[in-house]
Specification:
Layout lengths: L1 E5 L4 H14 L5 E4 L10 H11 L3 E4 L6 H4 L3 H22 L2 E7 L22 H16 L6 E6 L2 E2 L6 H11 L2 E5 L3 E2 L2 E2 H13 L10 E3 L6 E2 H14 L8 E5 L18
Parallel strand pairs: 1-2, 1-3, 3-4, 4-5, 5-10, 6-9, 7-12
Antiparallel strand pairs: 8-11
Helix pairs in contact: 1-7, 2-4, 4-5, 6-8
């Protein structure tokens, strides 16, 4: 069985690679990784022919344009990476019969809910990053509407030991700042890349035992928090683990006090 990981140098793709040997064991599985160097998601045609040539049984697509603010200005780039190239993957897999795990985001919702979002709730993104990811979801669901080849996995607030994320950024700021201003009125579910990586592998390894896995799934770790909560926790845990000698004072601020190009959902907890 051939399994292709796209975006394998990103924080999630790196974690999926890292834990693969532990989970795959002695199974006859060929793991293929791709990065920007050998697979350009700005060129959907290249993506299509790459998939066709490799003919994988599974693609775990972690590649994405994830810079929320930059997406407001680089819309064509965001659409090509988040919609057009996933569409090209779908076209290839429809011909080869392979299956796709496509990672999506809580940002497809507008954040106006007061209860966790269900997988079937109506999407309504409020920034272009969210719109580009929603467009990717819609075209994949349309193309795979009559079979069980697609699993869209929405997640939220990914953080891990690899790549760029809020937890690592705050850890560095604790080391260099006495005071850090952090937004407290955006609420979500922080999710470990390790948890999500394990879930992706479980989907593949258990797919033969499950009659039908839903086309859209939500996966995030338990609990809810604000960015302020996470920043405080990083300081406390950092000191316990002796990663920090001292922690900065975390000052809660409103979203309106932190200017940014793109709007963020105020509440994006996934059920």
């Amino acid at each position: 069985m051939k399994i292709l990981i796209t975006g394998s140098n990103g924080q999630l793709g790196s974690q999926i690679k890292k834990i693969a040997p532990k989970l795959l064991g002695k199974d006859n599985i060929e793991l293929i990784i791709s990065t920007r160097k050998n697979l350009d998601f700005l060129n959907p045609k290249e993506v299509y022919f790459f998939i066709k040539k490799i003919n994988p049984n599974w693609v775990i697509n972690t590649a994405a344009f994830t810079n929320v603010d930059n997406a407001e200005e680089e819309k064509i780039k965001a659409i090509k990476i988040n919609r057009d190239s996933p569409s090209a993957i779908a076209d290839a897999l429809l011909e080869t019969g392979g299956k796709l795990i496509h990672i999506s985001t809580d940002f497809v919702f507008d954040g106006s809910s007061t209860s966790p979002y269900k997988t079937y709730d109506k999407t309504n993104p409020i920034n272009f990053y969210g719109k580009s990811k929603e467009a990717g979801e819609k075209i994949l669901l349309q193309k795979f509407s009559h079979n069980n080849q697609l699993h869209i996995v929405r997640t939220s607030w990914l953080m891990g030991s690899l790549g760029k994320n809020f937890a690592l950024t705050i850890l560095n700021l604790h080391q260099s700042k006495k005071e850090i201003k952090v937004i407290y009125d955006q609420i979500g579910s922080p999710t470990s890349t390790n948890s999500l990586a394990n879930f992706c592998w479980e989907l593949i390894l258990n797919s033969k035992n499950l009659k039908k896995i839903p086309g859209v799934l939500h996966w995030c770790d338990a609990g809810i928090a604000s960015w302020y909560d996470v920043a405080v926790a990083v300081g406390e845990i950092g000191k316990k683990l002796e990663l920090l000698k001292s922690s900065a004072t975390i000052v809660p601020i409103l979203t309106s006090q932190y200017p940014s190009k793109a709007k963020r959902p105020k509440f994006s907890v996934l059920d």
